Inverse folding.
Protein backbone atom coordinates (compact mmCIF):
# COMPACT_ATOMS: atom_id res chain seq x y z
CA UNK A 1 0.00 0.00 0.00
CA UNK A 2 1.37 3.40 -1.00
CA UNK A 3 1.82 6.07 1.62
CA UNK A 4 -0.10 9.32 1.21
CA UNK A 5 1.70 12.55 2.08
CA UNK A 6 0.17 15.95 2.74
CA UNK A 7 1.94 19.20 3.62
CA UNK A 8 1.73 20.55 7.16
CA UNK A 9 1.22 24.28 6.78
CA UNK A 10 2.95 26.62 9.16
CA UNK A 11 2.24 30.32 8.70
CA UNK A 12 4.89 31.16 11.29
CA UNK A 13 2.68 30.96 14.37
CA UNK A 14 3.77 27.44 15.30
CA UNK A 15 7.21 26.22 16.28
CA UNK A 16 8.37 22.64 15.75
CA UNK A 17 7.72 22.04 19.46
CA UNK A 18 4.11 23.21 19.00
CA UNK A 19 3.56 20.54 16.36
CA UNK A 20 5.07 17.91 18.62
CA UNK A 21 3.19 18.89 21.77
CA UNK A 22 0.15 21.09 21.12
CA UNK A 23 -1.05 19.70 17.79
CA UNK A 24 -0.23 16.09 18.58
CA UNK A 25 -1.75 16.28 22.07
CA UNK A 26 -4.96 17.96 20.88
CA UNK A 27 -5.27 15.84 17.73
CA UNK A 28 -5.33 18.53 15.03
CA UNK A 29 -3.02 19.72 12.31
CA UNK A 30 -2.97 22.59 9.83
CA UNK A 31 -2.58 21.28 6.29
CA UNK A 32 -1.81 23.20 3.12
CA UNK A 33 -4.76 23.50 0.76
CA UNK A 34 -5.44 25.27 -2.50
CA UNK A 35 -8.55 27.44 -2.78
CA UNK A 36 -9.86 28.34 -6.19
CA UNK A 37 -11.71 31.54 -7.08
CA UNK A 38 -14.98 29.97 -5.87
CA UNK A 39 -13.44 28.92 -2.51
CA UNK A 40 -13.46 25.23 -3.45
CA UNK A 41 -10.75 23.41 -1.53
CA UNK A 42 -8.21 21.05 -3.06
CA UNK A 43 -5.76 19.14 -0.88
CA UNK A 44 -2.47 18.43 -2.67
CA UNK A 45 -1.44 14.84 -1.91
CA UNK A 46 1.65 12.86 -2.88
CA UNK A 47 2.76 9.25 -3.00
CA UNK A 48 6.43 10.25 -3.34
CA UNK A 49 7.96 11.98 -0.29
CA UNK A 50 10.65 13.73 -2.37
CA UNK A 51 8.04 15.31 -4.63
CA UNK A 52 6.00 16.28 -1.55
CA UNK A 53 9.08 17.83 0.03
CA UNK A 54 9.91 19.82 -3.10
CA UNK A 55 6.29 20.99 -3.36
CA UNK A 56 6.46 22.08 0.28
CA UNK A 57 9.68 24.04 -0.31
CA UNK A 58 8.17 25.82 -3.33
CA UNK A 59 4.82 26.68 -1.80
CA UNK A 60 5.01 27.04 1.97
CA UNK A 61 6.92 29.07 4.54
CA UNK A 62 9.83 27.58 6.42
CA UNK A 63 9.14 25.27 9.34
CA UNK A 64 6.46 23.40 7.44
CA UNK A 65 6.59 19.62 7.17
CA UNK A 66 4.94 16.50 5.84
CA UNK A 67 2.43 14.12 7.33
CA UNK A 68 1.48 10.63 6.24
CA UNK A 69 -2.29 10.24 6.14
CA UNK A 70 -4.34 7.06 6.26
CA UNK A 71 -7.48 6.25 4.27
CA UNK A 72 -9.70 7.31 7.18
CA UNK A 73 -8.13 10.80 7.09
CA UNK A 74 -8.68 11.03 3.33
CA UNK A 75 -12.33 10.03 3.77
CA UNK A 76 -12.76 12.70 6.45
CA UNK A 77 -11.44 15.36 4.07
CA UNK A 78 -13.72 14.13 1.28
CA UNK A 79 -16.67 14.24 3.70
CA UNK A 80 -15.75 17.89 4.35
CA UNK A 81 -16.29 18.48 0.62
CA UNK A 82 -12.59 18.86 -0.13
CA UNK A 83 -11.15 17.61 -3.40
CA UNK A 84 -8.09 15.34 -3.09
CA UNK A 85 -5.59 15.63 -5.92
CA UNK A 86 -2.43 13.52 -6.20
CA UNK A 87 0.52 15.34 -7.71
CA UNK A 88 3.44 13.69 -9.52
CA UNK A 89 5.33 16.97 -9.96
CA UNK A 90 6.00 19.71 -7.37
CA UNK A 91 4.09 22.52 -9.10
CA UNK A 92 4.41 26.09 -7.86
CA UNK A 93 1.16 27.73 -6.76
CA UNK A 94 2.50 30.83 -4.99
CA UNK A 95 1.59 33.09 -7.92
CA UNK A 96 -1.05 30.96 -9.63
CA UNK A 97 -3.92 33.05 -11.08
CA UNK A 98 -6.65 30.51 -10.21
CA UNK A 99 -5.54 29.30 -6.75
CA UNK A 100 -4.44 30.74 -3.44
CA UNK A 101 -2.53 28.80 -0.83
CA UNK A 102 -4.32 28.53 2.49
CA UNK A 103 -4.63 26.19 5.43
CA UNK A 104 -7.38 24.05 6.83
CA UNK A 105 -7.47 22.24 10.14
CA UNK A 106 -8.02 18.50 10.16
CA UNK A 107 -8.58 16.47 13.31
CA UNK A 108 -6.63 13.22 13.43
CA UNK A 109 -6.78 10.68 16.22
CA UNK A 110 -3.32 9.14 15.88
CA UNK A 111 -0.77 11.70 14.83
CA UNK A 112 2.64 10.53 13.75
CA UNK A 113 4.53 12.88 11.52
CA UNK A 114 7.93 14.22 10.64
CA UNK A 115 8.80 17.84 10.13
CA UNK A 116 11.79 18.72 8.07
CA UNK A 117 12.92 21.34 5.61
Amino acid sequence: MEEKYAVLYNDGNLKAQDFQFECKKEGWIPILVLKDNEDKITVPMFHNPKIAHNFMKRNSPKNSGLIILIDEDIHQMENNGWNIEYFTFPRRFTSHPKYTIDLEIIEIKNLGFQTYR
